[in-house]
Specification:
Number of strands: 5
Strand order of the largest sheet: 1-2-3
Radius of gyration: 21 Å
Order of helices and strands: EEEHEEHH
Strand content: 15-25%
Shape: elongated
Number of helices: 3
Number of domains: 2
Length: 89
């Protein structure tokens, strides 16, 4: 039996289309959210590692947010090093 992962649900007189993960059946309002879940999260280990500490996450946005919140000074130093002119002799 084939399962339809896009369903239309009637709630309070309104029809809403829902998108279900093909693996875990988690429900999403938007197909892009389901795609992001299937690509990065569903049954996957965290694949994005912070360069400043042991923090790992499944989503690239969460890593950027972590680095901004926890490593502001480290990011400034790293950025300054990248902007330094490289002098070759």
């Amino acid at each position: 039996m084939k399962f339809n992962f896009n369903r239309i649900v009637f709630f309070l007189g309104q029809s809403k289309r829902l998108f279900f993960c093909r693996t875990c059946s988690k429900c999403y309002k938007h197909s892009s959210s389901r795609s992001k879940h299937e690509r990065y999260e569903c049954q996957k280990e965290p694949q994005f590692q912070c360069v400043f500490c042991d923090y790992k996450t499944k989503l690239p946005f969460d890593l950027r947010k972590h680095e901004r919140n926890k490593h502001k000074e480290d990011l400034r130093i790293q950025e300054a090093k990248m902007l330094e002119p490289k002098i070759e002799y």
